[in-house]
Amino acid sequence: MKKQILFVILASIVTELLFSQQKIDLAFQYPSGGTFRKYHIYVPTAYNASNPSKLMVGFHAFDKAGWNGKSWRDSLISFAEYKDLLLVCPDGGTDGRIDDQVDYGFTTALIDSMKKWYNIDPLQVFGVGLSVGGKALYEYGLNNYQTFKGFIPMCATITDPSFVDDVLNRAKCKNFYIIHGNQDSPNTRYYPIKEGLLKNKAKVNTILMAGVGSTFDFPNRLSIMIRAFNYIDTAACNYTGIANNEKGHFLVIPNPIESGDNVSVNWAGHMDVTVNIYDISGRIVNTEKHRDHLGDFQLLTRNLNAGTYLIELSDGRNRVREKLIIKP
């Protein structure tokens, strides 16, 4: 029976592709013998089965009247098309949510199936989630950290900041770009998870949008999402260690950056550091003090204009500098 179902699914996919249908809406039984669970795929125009493609897995928000896997897929099509991403969005359960263990098992089965149906680079799998889907992305992504290269959680609905404490250590060297609004309970839903990721050596960039609550209809959405994907696709994980730091080195990641981005600083020395940023004329344009960041912290640079800057770190004993380039 399972072979027959798989054959029907594969035949449907082939038929859709032959007729240039880029949106695919199907279902399969999960768990085996259980109810049919829907999933929704977008195949970008540039997809070529001869070349490995990047895959984006989308977790939808909770709103039975407005959000499901299909509407989330449709909302992400412009983004997926711009970045040439295969996109797959599983439907949540009958409760409309996408964040329980059955949902996660279905997601795993769907990702495994996508790797069979399409030519996907296994090192280029990413996740994006909105609201409850953002919370699900943190939980599912960190529990399946080997599957993903990077994550874009948006307006994640987090009621308990400790919900992933037991798996935060798996965030090391994973790329996160957090999109959030300052009207969406940032003291619960934004700052704690950001700090937890940084302390566990994730590569993190963020945007905290002024005047924005829990919504997908935020200003400059497409450009922000493209910037977010560019970061999680390219951010490098290169930790220097104490020995290199004692020689007067620290890392600014990424470098160069685009105007409007923040950077992560890898500093393997004392926990407490003072940071001065100088422009090309030697004028201090930003000063920050960072405490208890386990050596890594994020530096606010998104308000700086394009140009060349000097970042100076001091821990009270040592003073070291590195160049930062901000591209237009």
Tags for this model:
Immunoglobulin-like; 8-stranded mixed β-sheet; 5-stranded mixed β-sheet
Task: Outline the structure in words.
Helices cover 28% and strands 30% of the residues. The protein is of the alpha/beta class and 328 residues long. The protein has 9 helices and 16 strands. The protein is elongated and about 65 Å long. The protein starts with a helix and ends with a strand. The strands form 3 sheets. It has an 8-stranded mixed beta sheet, with helices on both faces. The protein folds into 2 domains: 2-234, Rossmann fold, CATH 3.40.50.1820; 241-327, Immunoglobulin-like.
Q: Would you tell me the structural class of the helices and strands?
A: alpha/beta
List how many beta strands DSSP finds. Answer: 16
CATH homologous superfamily grouping of the largest domain: Alpha/Beta hydrolase fold, catalytic domain
**CATH top level class name of the largest domain:** Alpha Beta
Give the strand order of the largest sheet, numbering strands 1, 2, ... along the chain. Answer: 1-2-4-3-5-6-7-8
Task: Give the SSE map.
Layout: H1 2-18, E1 23-29, E2 36-42, E3 53-59, H2 69-75, H3 77-82, E4 85-90, H4 101-117, E5 120-130, H5 132-143, E6 150-154, E7 175-181, H6 186-189, H7 191-199, E8 203-209, H8 221-234, H9 241-246, E9 251-253, E10 257-258, E11 263-266, E12 273-278, E13 284-290, E14 296-299, E15 307-314, E16 319-327
